[in-house]
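This part of the workshop introduces the protein records we will be handling. An example says more than a description, so a record of this kind follows.
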Amino acid sequence: MDNDVENNQLEEQQQFADSERAKGQMLKGSAWMTIGSILSRILGALYIIPWRLIFGASLFPIANSLYTQGYNIYSFVLIVAIAGIPSAIAKQVAHYNALNEYGVGVQLYKKGIILSILMGIISALILWFAAPLLTNGDPNVIPVIHSLAWAVLIIPAMSLTRGYFQGYEDMAPSAISQFVEQLARVIYMLASAFIILKVLHGSYVTAVSQSTFAACIGAIFGFLILGWYYWKRRHYYHNLVAHSNNQLQVPTNQLYREIISQAVPFVILGAGVTIFSLIDQFTFFDIMRLATNFSERALQVDYAVFAGNANKLTMIVISLASSLAITVVPLLSTAFTKRNRAMMRDQLSNTMILFEFVMLPASLGMAAVAGPLNRTFYGTANMDFGSNVLTFAAITAIPIGLFVVTSAVMQGVSQNRRAVKYFVIGTIAKVITQFPLVYWFGAFGTLMSTVVGFTVANLLIIHSLNHDFGFEVHKMLMDSADLIAYALIMYVITLVTVYAMNFLIGLVGNPYSSLMSLVVTGVAALIGGSVYMYFTLKSRLADQVLGARVGRLRTVLHIS
């Protein structure tokens, strides 16, 4: 009897230790992926300022619309080309690593890289030859799509390699290569646009085409970073394989079946945001032609504002959720493989609270500074319309980000088919509401139908997870209520700061210039972020979410 009690206690202690270790890994992995993703997204948004100045006020709106239309199609084809294989590899490698069968993970990578190269070639050819059919009536889109086909050749293999590292719960290579990829892309696109337009006085279509070809240049540099990192740590990986159990022999056909069966749901769910964007792209113009008498140029400008301008900035916020999602999949897969339900329930609850902790202040903060932020990046042309769209889009980022995380969670616990089913239902909700909402509300209608679609999918997924695995409901409700309250207080204070600074600057100068708007955005964000940090530290909520080390920060700031 005493032995049974002792064994139960040891088992509970082991489960607690596993849970704490997983929480620590999730935070560490999320930190790496968040840093890499955020820096990449910020860089991917900052380029728009010099890019806009190079094109000039007259060419920028149509160039931005052209860029966005090409990139949306490319994003979808790229997701299909990647075929969800990186995330599938990360999940399966984590699964076999948990069984101490590191050699099988290496086999998975080798088979996956062959599959990725083939998918890259096939998808690039399809994108190239299908370009004339994907123009939405604008022939200028064709050279843009052609330039993007080259990136499709390289990125699937690069993404697969990132997935392999993530399977080892090593997020640093992915984060660093992601940043280097973006840096190389931005340097090339700005340099090429400047040379074509300012030195050679060439066509804006050619400049946009080279700006999109920059994705290929970035991919080459990103891949080189991954190769360097593996070479540096090759002895460590070889040692893990040498000391594996090496008792599991998985036939080649089974390896391919595992990769493909796991990858297909990742394709559909990974393309979720892009699919919604394509629905907007191929319906917005036709609906608006029925609802209004706007000129084609006016429609292009409207489209660029919500699909290009606002989207570039809100994706910075959504990338926070993406970083968390990438980290969660292998950790949940490990818990699922070990059949540790206590650890899984704890992981699910921690994931949801961490999402709220990060996304609520980020989205509401962006909504509060939408006016000056929009002027900083896009100037004063259409500034009222652009600011209002950005405000709405920032709020829309919450259900989008939640879907990114919850769909990844479903895949982590091997509920792939159900996750796809719920996404399809959400997509149907988006399609049904698209026409009436766009007809009545124009550009805002696209965002409204997106909220409807992702909210439907999120509710179904969360209900399913709670039914099958359970959440720590009481704790989550209490923490959620606090986080919402702190985020709303931060929003109000940030908004008041924006209006106050605009008024004060207006007494001596122009508060709507790009430079002054940048100052207002920075100061308001700093004040709002400080308020949110104070409340989460004061209430000890930050300790619960981020760990006990946060206590040091509270001591440094003299918050009792």
About this structure: The CA atoms of residues 142 and 388 lie 32 Å apart. The mean pLDDT is 83.
